[in-house]
Write a structure and sequence with these properties.
With about 280 residues, the protein is of the alpha+beta class. It contains six helices and 14 strands. It has one domain.
Length: about 280
């Protein structure tokens, strides 16, 4: 019963972009007045669609469990009679075909959001590595287990359009770690919602707290007793620019550097505010 509840909590998170989450990382963004930009991310990324959470929530053993029975007032629970349990079991058996269809549909949805990769396939991680390494910027990708990848990403060019990271071929864009939005007046807005461990910056992390607690309870029932591994953001994010910093939420504000100014954020499990900055590249 609890594993079905776990799946109910987990499914909407996975269906909104597979719930990619940063682990230990270092990330740097450079924005220059001549229109050039570069972005680098080196460290861990977790895809929960490949973690034990998805496996545990899949409820592979579809077993009947009697529901609670209630007194006539509808509030107090009581022990079910043999006849009531038999009736519940009959209803459960009658819904077997519907449950099988629902499971198949859920599996197809998970596969669709993963660009055709079946998360239940033992080769899914290898396929995902190959998919990422085909894309420009992904210099190296290796699977460390439990849906946790070690990546080295770097890209550069002219900032002629908006930019977001990460973007994975054939997969819908969920919550970005970093987004760069261009305005018509030469200003650039940078947001990094993925680099907030808790609070308003990354509400999904708060939701995952309850899921993780339930997952740990379920893992303790299993023979291996190993709870799923779930990483939290931990690292540094820096912006380098020769433009004018109009707004930012760093602790120290812009610091002088050989290339202009540097904004730096230290990210850990206590970080509540997502990094954000507004930079004018027109002057």
């Amino acid at each position: 019963m609890k594993s079905r509840l776990l799946f109910a909590l987990l499914a909407p998170l996975l269906l909104t972009g597979c719930l990619l989450s940063p682990g230990k990382f270092n990330s740097q963004l450079a924005l220059m007045k001549d229109g050039s930009f570069s972005y680098a991310y080196k460290g861990e990324i977790q895809m929960l669609a490949l973690s034990k959470l998805a496996e545990m929530g899949a409820d592979k053993e579809d077993k009947f469990e009697a529901k609670d029975c209630y007194e006539d007032d509808g509030f107090e629970t009581r022990e079910c009679t043999a006849g009531e349990i038999a009736a519940q079991k009959e209803e459960w058996d009658a819904g077997a075909d519907a449950r099988r269809i629902e499971k198949k549909e859920k599996a197809e949805r998970f596969k669709a959001i993963m660009g055709g990769v079946d998360p239940s396939d033992p080769e899914a991680a290898r396929e995902l590595v190959e998919m990422l390494e085909r894309q420009k910027g992904w210099n190296s990708v290796s699977h460390k287990g439990d849906g946790l990848f070690d990546v080295d990403f770097a890209i550069s060019g002219q900032l002629s359009h908006d930019f977001a990271f990460p973007v994975i071929e054939k997969m819908p864009i969920g919550s970005s770690f970093v987004s760069v939005i261009l305005r018509k007046d030469g200003k650039v807005r940078v947001d990094a919602p993925g680099f907030a461990a808790q609070g308003a910056g990354n509400p999904l992390q708060g939701m995952m707290g309850g899921v993780m607690g339930m997952a740990a309870m379920e893992a303790n029932k299993k023979k291996d007793g190993e709870p799923p591994v779930f990483v939290m953001p931990e690292g540094t994010f820096t912006i380098i620019t020769d433009g004018t910093v109009l707004a930012n939420n760093t602790d120290e504000g812009p610091q002088a550097s050989a290339q202009g100014q540097v904004l730096a954020w230290e990210i850990n499990a206590r970080s509540e505010q997502a990094p954000t900055a507004l930079i004018d590249l027109s002057r």
